[in-house]
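---------- Forwarded message ----------

FYI, see the Nodulin-like domain-containing protein record below. Original note from H. follows.
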Amino acid sequence: MSQMCFAIFVGGNSTTWFNTAVLVTCMRNFPRSRGNIVGFLKGFVGLSGAIFMQIFFSLLDKNAVKLLLFLALGPAFVCFFCMGFVRPVPPSTGGSLAELDEEKRQFWVIYVICVALAIYLFIAAFLDKFVINYSISLTVAIVMFLFLIAPIVVPVRVFLGILLPKKGDFLLDSSYQPSDEPDTKRSAVDIINDNLTTNDEDLSFQGPKFIEAEEENTELLLALGEGAVKRRKRRPRRGEDFKLKQALIKADYWLLFLTFCCGIGSCITVIDNLSQLGQAQGYSDVSIFVMLNCIWGFLGRLGSGYVSEHFIRATTTPRSFWIGAAQALMVIAHLLFAFAVPGSLYIASSIVGLCQGVQIAATVPTVSEVFGLKHFGILYNFIILADPVGSLLFSTFLAGSIYDAELIKEYGSAAAVYDTACTGAHCFRLTFLLLAVICTAGVVLSIILTVRLKPVYVTLYGTQDSTNASYSSLPSQDSYTLMPSVESTSSASPPVQFVFPEMSSSATSDPDGQ
């Protein structure tokens, strides 16, 4: 027992290290396609269960000892082989529409390969139940490995294109210089990403109604250096880089945490109790439900990354909207579990996998967009704490307690329920009715979060026209008066200019008109 606990402890913590290293690096390497990147990476995490199960069936003869040996050596070998490729690569500073279109085309190739792999594993899962032949199983496994290594054609093609540029291929030609003409269709986040190679201090907000001084007054700088004047540090705004301590005092961060906890906690409850769910409904083998959950979880991650990225660019819809939509769909799945409709376990387990994938793929880039990429690793890992917290609350305390109570009610005493299983829809009915209520609360929280984050996404991803429209409540340009410049003692320093809004006569007079 102690050895098993230690193995689970080491395995569970090691996944966090992999997640942080790979996810943070890739998010910074592809800042303009965060949804797509998270969809790919988290998608294969969800699909890994189906992949290992296929290996277990096809190559390991369903031998548990061989599976443990493979899990001990296989991932370690892959990590040592691939660790040199996981490194920060500065993104291109051009960011033209042509480059973005080329990047989308490369992602589409990977999308097609991934969807084909998921469909193939879906078919192979049913094939293994009816066809028992080693040669066929070996062929299935070989084709699966070919699908797994197929995405490598994309970076190889790009690399070869750089070495051997085609005539007239301006995307791969290093001598090509993008046009200096302004592109009004580019979003604010694309413009900011063009300056990723510069220091954070060099980035300044370019609002439509503000004039910012280029340099500080020399006397003021001297006073600051001598300690005579203390400058108050401005707290970061949403969309800028937050530290964990700064994010923890933001309502949006806790709304995202609670929303994710409601959704992912109920998903983990289903996965943890899938074996008991199958037994309660009369299924002796639940491997097909595990496979369905993994495959649809992969499709949910992959689809959420693409769909959320598309609607962000098209309508600046916050990704939290898709978290709420997934939890609304989960309410239906929980009701199917609660009433145990014949054959509903196939549909419900697939819905749970799909919704789990959507929530994970939407939550991760939301953290980076609202709270920045600089401290993304710790901010993301704190949000992921909602996973074990939800599992403890909903799976251990809620589902476990109700299941034991139903067993005692069915068999009469606590001693008689040892190593027995509860059968019938009543075993989990109350659990999933409560989980449906919890997911409904998650939908309400996600709606509140979406409304709060809408202005942030308009600023980050809206075009220049929509971004300026978000500041329509500000006074007009005519209502600002340029004050006389403060003379500087140094001729090298330009004067500092201050801008104050003009006050109308009605605003300056007192209420009594005196």
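H. also flagged this: The longest strand covers residues 480-482.
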